[in-house]
Amino acid sequence: MIRVGIAGATGYTGLELLRICSHHPEVEIIWATSDSYSGIELGNYCPAWQGRTCMVLEKPDMEEMAREVDVVFLGLPHGVSMDYVPAIFPHAKVIDLGADFRIQNLETYEKYYGLHHKLPTVVREAVYGLPEIYRQKIKTAQIIANPGCYPTSIIIPLYPLLKNQIIQPEIIADSKSGVTGAGKKPTEVTHFCEIDGSFKAYKIGEHRHQPEIQEQLSSAYGGSVDIVFTPHLLPIKRGILSTIYVQGDPSVSEKEMWKIIENFYHNEPWVRVYPLGQFPELKWVLGSNFCDIGLKKVDKKHFVIVSAIDNLTKGASGQAVQNMNILFGVDERVGLPSSVLYP
Ligand SMILES: NC(=O)C1=CN([C@@H]2O[C@H](COP(=O)(O)OP(=O)(O)OC[C@H]3O[C@@H](n4cnc5c(N)ncnc54)[C@H](OP(=O)(O)O)[C@@H]3O)[C@@H](O)[C@H]2O)C=CC1
Ligand SMILES: CC(=O)N[C@@H](CCC(=O)OP(=O)(O)O)C(=O)O
C-alpha cells in the first residue's frame, strides 16, 4: 500500500484528494491536515464523511508527519508549500498542487505571485506533473509540480501541434472556469450574489497562469510561443472549458491536424480526442479525470480547438493521483474516476 498524507484536506483540492484516495485500492490515507480545524473529526467538518472514517484533522507538523508516509500531497496556498517541503524531503515524495515549483524562471514566478522564492534549487529539481508529456521524468522525481488547472486544459491539446511545428507560435485561448477554481474561501468577487446569473472575463492579459502556459508551450515548440490567455468565471461550481484559436498552413487539412493530436494521445487513458464534428462539453467530464478535445478548421488557416476538464480532478487532484500512480509503479488508471455525474 502507498501511505499518503494530505496537507490542506479541508480545501477543495484536499477534499477531492480524499474522495479519490478513499476509493484507491493501493492507497492508505495516514493523515490529513487543516490549519483551522485541527482536532476535529473529518466527518464533523464535512458530514459527507460521516460513517466513512473516524479520521481526525491534524495541525501540519511535517517534521514528524512526513516520516509516517511515502508521499505528501500539498493542497496549500501558494507560498505555503515551499515552507513545508524541506521537512518532507528526507522522508517522502512531494506532489505539490500549488504553483511554487511549476515555473522554472524564478523572476517570472516572483513577479506574477508577488512572493520571494525560498527554494530555487528545488524548483530546478521539480518535474512538471503533466503525465502525458513528462511520464518518464515523473517516474523518478522526488517532487512533482502539479500543473495549474487552466494550463492543463490548454497545454494538453496544443503540445502535439507545437511539437510537430504544424501551427504558428501565436495562440489565443479563452478559458471558462467554475468557481471552485478560486478555492473555498469566498471573496467579494466569488461569493454567490456576485457570480450567480453573471459571467465575466477577469485578469485580462495578467493572469498568473499565462507564464506557466507560455513556458511549457515554448519548450514544446523549441522556441518562443506567444499566447493571449483570457480566463472567465462561470456561475457553476466545477469545470473548465477552453476555446483555443490557432493558425496552420492553408495546405493542412482538418483531418491532418486532428490526426496529429489523435495519434499522440491514442494510448492515453485520460485524454479523449473526439471524432471530427463532435466537441467536448463540461457535462461529459465533470467528476472524471478525463481531458476531452475537439477540433474544427473554420477557414483557410484558422482552427478552433475545444478542451474540457474538471478543474478539481484532471485540473488538480485527479492529475495528482495519476502522478502518484506513476511514481509508485501503479497503472495510471487505478483509483481514478472515469464515470461522470450525468444527468
Ligand atoms: N481549486 C482548484 O481548482 C485548483 C487549485 N489548485 C491549487 O491547489 C492549492 C489548494 O487549492 P484549494 O484546495 O482550491 O484551496 P482552498 O483555499 O480551498 O484550501 C486551502 C487549504 O490549505 C489550508 N491552509 C491555508 N493556509 C494554510 C497554512 N498557512 N498552513 C497550512 N495549511 C493552510 C486550508 O486549511 P484550513 O482552511 O482548514 O485552515 C485548506 O485546507 C492552491 O495552491 C491552488 O492554487 C490547483 C489546481 C486547481
Ligand atoms: C476560478 C479561479 O479563480 N481560478 C483560479 C485558478 C485556479 C487554479 O487552479 O490555479 P492554480 O492551480 O494555479 O492554483 C484563478 O484564476 O486564480
UniProtKB/TrEMBL annotation:
Catalytic machinery residues: 149
Enzyme class (EC, first level): oxidoreductase
Compartments where found: Cytoplasm
Reactions that this protein is recorded to catalyse: N-acetyl-L-glutamate 5-semialdehyde + phosphate + NADP(+) = N-acetyl-L-glutamyl 5-phosphate + NADPH + H(+)
GO biological process terms, semicolon-separated: L-arginine biosynthetic process
GO MF term set: N-acetyl-gamma-glutamyl-phosphate reductase activity; NAD binding; NADP+ binding
Signal peptide: none
Major place of residence: cytoplasm
Pathway terms, separated by semicolons: Amino-acid biosynthesis; L-arginine biosynthesis; N(2)-acetyl-L-ornithine from L-glutamate: step 3/4
Key words, A-Z: Amino-acid biosynthesis, Arginine biosynthesis, Cytoplasm, NADP, Oxidoreductase
Entry GO CC: cytoplasm
Keyword Amino-acid biosynthesis recorded: yes
Domain Semialdehyde dehydrogenase NAD-binding: 3-141
Pfam families assigned: Semialdhyde_dh (PF01118), Semialdhyde_dhC_1 (PF22698)
Enzyme Commission no: 1.2.1.38
HAMAP family referenced in this protein's UniProt entry, alphabetically: ArgC_type1
Family assignment from sequence similarity: Belongs to the NAGSA dehydrogenase family. Type 1 subfamily.
Function recorded in the entry: Catalyzes the NADPH-dependent reduction of N-acetyl-5-glutamyl phosphate to yield N-acetyl-L-glutamate 5-semialdehyde.
Protein name as it appears in the record: N-acetyl-gamma-glutamyl-phosphate reductase
Organism expressing this protein natively: Atribacter laminatus
Gene name linked to the record: argC
